[in-house]
């Protein structure tokens, strides 16, 4: 009889489970009902028939708008949007019949896709970071369709919208192209529009920086002086200690690549790939950070904090300066500016500079883009998949996903689509609602083409625009070619590079916490000799070959 | 011998309904533990996911040479052994003590409450528990506040940036999270002890300590022995999720366990053959340790797995 109080709970739980399973069943059957009609149709219509209807001037998705489900793997575990709830996604599904099921990896995208490759079952569409090793494996292992072949067969309109430049950029030696990139920028485009997608900035908290009399942070002396002043006069903010410095992405990004770009460390010298880590200016600045640590002016929190801790400090404006992508601040900055201390937001300023006082040379966007989207050979509907991708790549698809539905989220003003004012405002005030309920702007970025969508972006809030303009002005437009020269995968040279870069991640904290300069030099020498024993010479060779190949491709 | 065997068979047949319940478990083990062993062969190949397995070239012991000559591999062995030893020596008795203490509690309600609360953390994923632990250890965290209030330190220490603390951090967080859960098996074993033994001992004038030592501990000795043998064979293993959450660039030299090494050097770059080779070697060592512990336990206590 002891179990008596348990029973009502048990009963309640069972009811909930039952209700859930019924709900699950009914939603399943709803989609399944549609499946049989869609699949046989695709099989029943023999190719010659469809071929007669195909037209290179006309998008082919209009030929078949029967409902079909496509699974779409988005290789970013933080991607939290769904399809089918928001206005834009509903609109697209209604129009094309394609219902997307978004999947995200539970851990690392690379691993998950590798796992799926082993099992031989891949989602219909796959979007993955273009630098990921799994992308190359998908292509080489024949797990994904050659898009040009699919387009020839089902939707020649694809060639019209995919852009010859990007198709050529990703063309493999066998003449096939397997993926379409998003956010791909060609140098010509950047020169033309001044929009460079440069992202790496040096940010300071405006109120502190101005109260301190806008100290010069571009020289080691000025940098240390400002930190000393900060420590003496502003050690706390809202009762919590100030964190003087933050570098995004920890060692490999913030403290290595981004810092080197701020210092305008060259990528090549006289046609030879340059070993940026040994650059004297870079070393001098690492020593500056060491000194700052020794004097207790900075802590090592930026090397150990978890993402949650970083987020908490950022949201409370507890950092004084940061080496950080400004896009990562586009939600926080307006929030800080609207808060109790309206001047406690971040602005981009000149950060560390090289001994010649040159301004930063930031990475711009590049041809590789961000993610590439592919159609897997596991799909039962390659025809619908390529047509859907073509649609999304076209101006119409870009508009439908980026702006939503005409009359509801945008209006035509003088022949040009314009986002309604309320949504432009929501972008600054309640971006979560905008993305969840309407799904417009940057919600579904998997096929985002900056050339098309940037013209529709509303004017950004001044606190964001300041950072963006600053980055654009310092972008080194022609340096996109140097991005990602390092070997990837499981070849010997890639393994050598992986050992070297992982070792560097441990060495850099040692350098900064070294007790004096002699110790610093010793640790650094140790790293260099270890690096050589791991096979650094081959890595440099690989980079050189890769760079030469890219130059040849660009010249085509 | 013959007699007992036919006797066993008969008993087995008589209980076939009950015995058949074990079949799914055996099937599961066969499919997920034994069949995959065939794939150990890729440890001797340059296996590529993109190609069918048998088309990959055989490379003999290349991958074994690769990791045996890597200083980072030996560092990961040291770290794994370090963390496991602390866990084994200090951590192993804790759930036993906990179960014994719990057993002495008279109030059933209180006992149940304590037991439930103590095993709840087990159900929190390491990703979350690790995040909580990082906050405790960070600037302005509970630990720092406590230490400063006690006057043991005068400023915040980033505990997680000091490599020398790492092994202890893993030990304490693991103990905090898993003690209650690990104690369950002992509590179950204690529950199986015949109450008549206690009554008889009480009549003979044994006090509580004597009853605990001579009855409770002696009765659960086989359980302890088996769990100890298994713990020893798992000494080259580590809690990957825990370490993955707590590690960072600054404590890496004490944090990289064998599992993390396999992850960093193998899986991250897609070197499946290399990872398999390391795992293969580890399994062989684990088997050796298991046999050793089993034999010693047999000699010393008479209890063993086989």
UniProtKB/TrEMBL annotation, chain A:
Compositional bias ranges of the Low complexity kind: 36-51
Alphabetical list of InterPro entries matching this protein: Bact_solute-bd_prot1 (IPR050490), SBP (IPR006059)
Region forming the signal peptide: 1-29
UniProt-annotated stretches for the region Disordered: 31-53
Keywords associated with the record: Signal
The keyword Repeat belongs to this UniProt entry's keyword annotation: no
Classification via Pfam families: SBP_bac_1
Domain of life assignment: Bacteria
Protein known as: Aldouronate transport system substrate-binding protein
Lineage: Bacteria, Bacillati, Bacillota, Bacilli, Bacillales
UniProtKB/TrEMBL annotation, chain B:
Record Gene3D superfamilies: MetI-like (1.10.3720.10)
UniProt-listed InterPro entries: MetI-like (IPR000515), MetI-like_sf (IPR035906)
Keywords attached to this entry: Membrane, Transmembrane, Transmembrane helix, Transport
Protein's name according to its UniProt entry: Aldouronate transport system permease protein
Family: Belongs to the binding-protein-dependent transport system permease family.
Pfam families per UniProt: BPD_transp_1
Subcellular location: Cell membrane; Membrane
Domain ABC transmembrane type-1: 77-291
Bilayer topology annotation: Multi-pass membrane protein
Keyword Ribonucleoprotein among UniProt keywords: no
Transmembrane segments: 21-45, 85-105, 117-138, 180-198, 219-240, 274-293
Domain of life: Bacteria
Keyword Cytoplasm found: no
Primary localisation category: membrane
PANTHER family named in the record: POLYGALACTURONAN_RHAMNOGALACTURONAN TRANSPORT SYSTEM PERMEASE PROTEIN YTEP (PTHR43496:SF1), PROTEIN LPLB (PTHR43496)
